[in-house]
Amino acid sequence: AQNEGKSILVAIHADWCPTCRSQAATIEKLSKSEEFKNLVILRVDFDAQEETVKAFGARRQSTLIVFKGSQEVGRSLGDTHEASITTLLKKAL
Known about the structure:
Elements: E1 7-13, H1 18-31, E2 40-45, H2 50-55, E3 63-68, E4 71-77, H3 82-90
Parallel strand pairs: 1-2
Antiparallel strand pairs: 1-3, 3-4
């Protein structure tokens, strides 16, 4: 996806995390919109994929990272507000 210059969201997620569940619901809703229909969403399991979490420089679950191609263009931690998640995702478009 990076080599193709796609818009990418990496969500560092843990199933036990209530913040992550709230983020996931918001992301699911936004992904169905016309604006974000081509957004590639990758979920990284905070507990099971520790090396990948470290590679992204994430220290906590509920981290959202957006890329435009191979360039990171935004990151948030613990945000559950639809408006600010939307703003974050738009950076990748």
